[in-house]
Amino acid sequence: MINNLFQYATSELSQDAFLCWLFSYAHVDSKVDPALRDCALAMIKHFVPNLREKDNADIMVIDILRQHKAIDVLIELKEDYVILIENKTNTSEHDNQLTRYLELAQQEYEGKEIIPIYYKTGFQGDYSRVQEAGYTVVDWSIIPGILSPYKDRITNAIFCDYLEEREDFLSAAQAYQNMPISKWDWRQVNGFYDSIYRSGFYEKYNFYGGYGYVPNPSGGFDALWFFPDSATKPYMGQSYILYMQLEFRNAEMKICMKVECGDKDPEQSITPSELRNYLTYSLDESNQWVYRLEQYGFVKPARFGAGKTMTIGEYAASYDDVDTFMDAFMKAISAFHAYCAEVAI
Q1: Do 197 and 215 fall within a single domain?
Q2: Does the predicted model carry a pTM greater than 0.85?
Q3: What pLDDT score does 231 carry?
């Protein structure tokens, strides 16, 4: 894919430009290209379900705006619709921007129905705030399916490069299914996390959480985290919650048990280190301190932290591919639940 334009044009502005360019073929003043017009209208119909039964000849774009009042893309149709597109690559929504953009569009296009679209070409583990703001998510897993029916009719290099790049991304994200874990890169890792996130896993085990990149001073990593659906618990003035996290580092996937410290009594509270020791050590029958997570299949991490978030155990198991990993993962979840029951969380 070295000669692909979108190997290099990776910014959100480049993607905005592609979308505007594609929709321009459905504009009233467009030059004639039936295949590109049909493709543009297929995407419009995906965005606006009420138009799906409408004849293509009756749908027309009358205005295309890019970076208008900080809104990425606005597509005004001859019909009483305006498509608002918030385009994201590797970032996510922030600062109430989605609600703000929608309100701006509603004020400017009073009398027209605003169709807010969250167009996401990178990975994102939680779309709840997007959906709460009223946006429809169109993400990396969907985009190739909208465009690919037209690949045999369209020879335009811009379109072909964009579709090729999107298909390659989808293929790479799904390649975790058949690749050894040691060969994964960030695309297989996040494709795997995304498959867990969409599978109903969180609902089945009554967890909440997400996935994404975790930066830290010693080098960031891609992670998936899941918390029990319960409030934090207190111990000697310090609140805390136990949770699990998958961490991909140095071509290895680790299954970690973590503790996150919450609020504490400002006048009388133990330190995070003391909380960690309470959670990880107990006296045996010989009155010796032992690592209490070992009985649940966890080993001590190479080093203990002493901050707000600490790894207190790593699940001891061997796995080469996604199938053997999932077997260990399910066992680790059962062990996690058993341990949580022991410490009454």
Answers
A1: yes
A2: yes
A3: 67
Q: Please state the domain count of the chain.
A: 2
Judgement on whether residues 281 and 244 belong to the same structural domain of the protein? yes
pLDDT digits (tens, 9 = 90+) for 294-335: 999 999 998 887 788 999 999 999 999 999 999 999 999 999
Residues paired with residue 257 on neighbouring β-strands, in sequence order: 244, 313
Residue 31: strand, helix, or coil? coil
What is the token pair recorded at 21?
Answer: 């360019």
Angle formed by the axes of helices 12-24 and 34-47, to 10°?
110
| Residue in 92, 81, 91, 98 with CA at minimum distance from that of residue 135 | 98
CA atoms of 276 and 272, how far apart (whole Å): 6
Domain co-membership, 205 together with 226: yes
Report the alpha-carbon distance of residue 59 to residue 93 in Å, rounded. 30
* 165 and 189 fall within a common domain: no
Does 202 share its domain with 270?
Answer: yes
Nearest CA among 57, 52, 51, 53 for reference residue 37: 57
Q: Quick one: 24 and 118 in the same domain?
A: yes
The number of C-alpha atoms within 13 Å of 184 and in the hemisphere containing its C-beta is 29
For the record, the structure tokens of 43 come out as: 């995407």
Residue 344 has pLDDT above 70, yes or no: no
Last-in-domain residue among 120, 153, 173: 173
DSSP three-state, residue 244? strand
Q: Residue 276 corresponds to which tokens in the numbers above?
A: 């960690």
Give the mean model confidence (pLDDT) for residues 260-282.
86
Provide the domain limits for residue 210: 179-342
